[in-house]
Amino acid sequence: MQRSETNSENLERERERERQCGVCTVLLLYCVWRAAMATGGERVPVELCKGINGLDKVVLREGRAASAEVYLYGAHVTSWKNDHGEELLFVSSKAIFKPPKAIRGGIPICFPQFSNHGSLEAHGFARNRFWSIDTDPPPFPTNSTSKAFIDLILKPSEDDAQKWPHSYEFRLRVTLSPAGDLMLTSRIRNTNSDGKPFSFTFAYHTYFSVSDISEVRVEGLETLDYLDNLQNKERFTEQGDALTFESEVDKIYLSTPTKIAILDHEKKRTFVLRKDGLPDAVVWNPWDKKAKSLVDFGDDEYKHMLCVEAAAIEKPITLKPGEEWKGRLELCAVPSSYCSGQLDPEKVLQNA
After folding, report:
1. Is 156 within 8 Å of 112 (Cβ atoms)?
2. Burial class (CB in 10 A: 0-12, 13-18, 19+), 33
3. Given 47, 69, 309, 314, which residue is catalytic?
4. What's 229's domain CATH number?
5. From the candidates 76, 166, 205, 265, which is the catalytic residue?
6. 288 near 303, Cβ under 8 Å?
7. Any catalytic annotation for residue 248?
8. Domain of residue 245, residue span
9. Neighbouring C-alpha atoms within 13 Å toward the C-beta of 300
């Protein structure tokens, strides 16, 4: 029995090595072609390279110093830098870049289940699967002229099909615009041949880098209903003019606007989220006690991050065979405005 298990493990390891070689070859050819599109003097817009622990990643570049990094493992955006080279996303110094562990920080993709809202593993399986390059995606309507984008695709494995018995195609495009904005567009199609629909919940679990969580305000969610995950998902209505933070928070805001602003007083920076197809928004910070219980999270790192997640949770998305859902997130970072020492979020939300 022990010999059989060892042989099986060796076979699986060899298959994974062959799969990785195939992925690397396709990626290399694709990125060489994309790099050839850049004219003389331009920064190469798309580059394949090795990341932490030898995992494949794609680097997108625009302008002087704007960039984004996307790991093929989990289709996981782990870096987004502005034109000054400043990092805008938070990734824990203790993040474990080793499958099957999900990467702590950046923008994990939660599919087909958000958190524990179902019978699957927390946040589903998309964030800890190896995605493939999509070299021939279907037509993709876009107003962006950027060459800095990557198309990825995920299809169910045999193991996934046992846990979640549905056939699907999950296509993701990550784009860095000429202005340095970051855009993620997901397209999920039901390819079941048995005529059955399926339902799922979804989130872009975005970790923003902030100077000091006590100096951060979130605008756009005031007066809305939310489910408090710290109180058994009980429903409440938000009070006050803005969200500020002085303890652990884990809330799902419902029927949210298409724009939300995160205002960082110390850095004089405002993040603006624009979203389509994603009616809900999750706000999460573990604070000190929970941070210490997370093995892949520094004890004091909660002070320098905030998750604000575009999501579809309260009402799961249901697709019949052949139907497709699209969920889009656009992130930009702009200088904050001041008025009597306070940030002016309404100007940001109206003009951004």
Report:
1. no
2. exposed
3. 309
4. 2.70.98.10
5. 205
6. no
7. no
8. 2-351
9. 2
Q: What is the DSSP letter of 28?
A: H
What residue type is 22 in one-letter code? G
Into how many domains does the chain fold?
A: 1
What is the chain's length?
A: 352
Dihedral angle of Cα 58, 61, 65, 71, to the nearest 10 degrees: -20
Helix residue ranges, H only, 281-340: 287-293
Gap between the Cα atoms of 343 and 135, Å rounded? 44
Token pair 């984008």 is found at 149
Q: What is the pLDDT along the chain (352 residues), one digit of tens a residue?
A: 333 444 544 545 455 555 554 555 455 545 544 544 444 456 799 999 999 999 999 999 999 999 999 999 999 999 999 999 999 999 999 999 999 999 999 999 999 999 877 667 878 999 999 999 998 888 877 667 789 999 999 999 988 888 999 999 999 999 999 999 999 999 999 999 999 999 999 999 999 999 999 999 999 999 999 999 999 999 999 987 899 999 999 999 999 999 999 999 999 999 999 999 999 999 999 999 999 999 999 999 999 999 999 999 999 999 999 999 999 999 999 998 644 344 455 555 555 5
Burial class (CB in 10 A: 0-12, 13-18, 19+), 296: middle
Q: Which long-range contacts (CB under 8 A, 24 or more apart) does 343-349 make?
A: 343/217, 343/263, 343/265, 343/270, 345/217, 345/219, 345/220, 345/242, 345/261, 345/263, 345/270, 346/219, 348/219, 348/261, 348/263, 348/270, 348/272, 349/219, 349/220, 349/259, 349/261, 349/272
Over the range 263-294, which residues count as b (16 or more CB within 10 Å of their CB) and which as e? bbbebebbbbbbbebbbbbbbbbbbeeebeee
Residue 205 bears catalytic tag: yes
Q: Which amino acid is at 65?
A: A
Cβ atoms of 317 and 191 within 8 Å: the answer is no
